[in-house]
């Protein structure tokens, strides 16, 4: 796989995980306002973006598993970091939503 193809995958991951992060922050805002239904909708929407990022990542993994040599550059490291931190942020947001619901 040539370096340009790897960069395209990295940017797909960054784009979609960035979109997901923005939506998670919208969910946090909805939680603060007490709009828990909207927060839940936003968290579901963020998951759709994360799935797109994950699909881009999976394409790369399939190539690698098939024997394709892939040279990893710093942009891919950044993309993976971006994806994993956004996934973690979403998990925290899901827990926070449940806690917000318990506070009278």
From TrEMBL:
SUPFAM superfamilies: Enzyme IIa from lactose specific PTS, IIa-lac (SSF46973). Transmembrane segments: none annotated. It holds the Pfam family PTS_IIA. It comes from the Bacteria. This is PTS system cellobiose-specific IIA component. Keywords: Phosphotransferase system, Sugar transport, Transferase, Transport. The keyword Transport applies. InterPro entries: PTS_IIA_lac/cel (IPR003188), PTS_IIA_lac/cel_sf (IPR036542). The modification Phosphohistidine is found at residue 78.
């Amino acid at each position: 796989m040539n370096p340009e193809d790897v960069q395209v995958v990295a940017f797909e991951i960054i784009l979609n995980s960035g979109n997901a992060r923005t939506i998670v922050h919208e969910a946090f805002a909805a939680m603060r306002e007490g709009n828990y239904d909207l927060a839940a909708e936003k968290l579901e929407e963020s998951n759709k973006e994360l799935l797109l990022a994950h699909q881009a990542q999976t394409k790369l993994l399939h190539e690698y598993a098939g024997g394709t040599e892939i040279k990893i550059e710093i942009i891919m490291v950044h993309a993976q970091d971006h994806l994993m931190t956004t996934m973690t942020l979403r998990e925290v947001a899901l827990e926070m939503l449940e806690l917000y619901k318990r506070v009278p």
